[in-house]
Amino acid sequence: MRYLVTGGLGFIGSNLVRHLLTEHSDASIVNVDAGKYGSNPANLTGVDRERYSFVSGDIADAKLMTRLVADADRIVNLAAETHVDRSISDSSPFLASNTNGVVTVLEALRKAGTNARLTHVSTDEVYGDIEEGSFTEESGLRPSSPYAASKAAGDMFVLAYARTYGLEAMLTRCTNNYGPYQFPEKLIPKTIIRASMGKRIPVYGTGENVRDWIHVADHCSAIDAVLEGGRRGGIYNAAGGEERTNIEVVRTILRLVGRGDELIEFVEDRPGHDVRYSLDASHLKAELGWEPRHDFAGGLEETVEWYLKSEPWWRPLVDDRVLHPTPWKLVW
């Protein structure tokens, strides 16, 4: 089986490459990645080079995507700009990648005239926030940030191309991921690394914003299930069923690292900060038999241990990029 993964040097993408190589003995994978700030070649150190190859390129490159899509049986689109704070500072890269880039992939698939299956990986943020209950696949979209808006637009193009052109395309929407190889400016790895260094931990607002957390390995198994068994034009929510406030996550990490709450520093909340995300994943479970295997307590403990043992992996990222301020916030 020939897989094309876009954005495979990123956090979820690199974990997906490892998952596919492990779970499918006949898998050969081409990974196309533009090498932007969330990409890291070190994420795939040690993978089987006889079954894996890398192409440096952007999904907005129509000629490149036309060539790569024509040779694929399965396609997973993970290439995206993902950091909300960066989208608040400048939305143009998000439109270019998360919307226009998606259309480029869809056009390549349409012109290829093959039966290749495409799973587009989206986010729970397209639904906006919800104070009670959980969003289903039938819920309306109310994106709060430029990032979420760009992802919602990409989703609509996927669904439109599936219906208009009959493409075997579907999409997943997932809650917050955690696990190994996550870029250090995200909440969990940033908190682990800063706490281990005795540095203060910035927390937006009061820290009472609620997120559902899913281990990246469980997200990868959900993507795989949809890629193989999902319906054309289908939407599938994936969630870990592990809701926590941000401040609860930070305090748990501090305890695991052996630090106290004195490192916590509450900072000005970001514009449009959603109060709570929650997805109902019962459709994915019922139709495709998927279930998450990691509980948050155990998964977080394993994740903390991985980062504490993986300084050679994260240290270059911290020194080169994360210590520098972004245009919107000093994220490190």
Characterization of this structure:
The chain is of the alpha/beta class and 332 residues long. It has a domain at 2-178 and 213-238: 3-Layer(aba) Sandwich (Rossmann fold), CATH 3.40.50.720. It is built from eleven helices and twelve strands. The strands form three sheets. A seven-stranded parallel β-sheet has the order 3-2-1-4-5-6-10, with helices on both faces. Strands 7-9-11 form a three-stranded mixed β-sheet. A two-stranded parallel sheet has the order 8-12. Strand 5, helix 5 and strand 6 form a beta-alpha-beta unit. Helix 2 packs across helix 4 and helix 6 packs across helix 10. The radius of gyration is 19 Å and the shape is globular. Residues 320-332 have low confidence and may be disordered.
CATH top level label of one domain? Alpha Beta
* pLDDT averaged residue by residue: 93
CATH fold assignment of one domain:
Rossmann fold
Class by SSE composition? alpha/beta
- Major sheet, described briefly? 7 strands, parallel
DSSP summary: helix tally? 11
Shape: globular
Helix content: 40-55%
Low confidence ranges: 320-332
| CATH homologous superfamily caption of one domain | NAD(P)-binding Rossmann-like Domain
DSSP summary, beta strand count: 12
Task: Give the second-level CATH assignment, the architecture of one domain.
Answer: 3-Layer(aba) Sandwich
**Secondary-structure element order, as H and E?**
EHEEHEHHEHEEHEEHEEHEHHH
Beta-strand content estimate? 15-25%
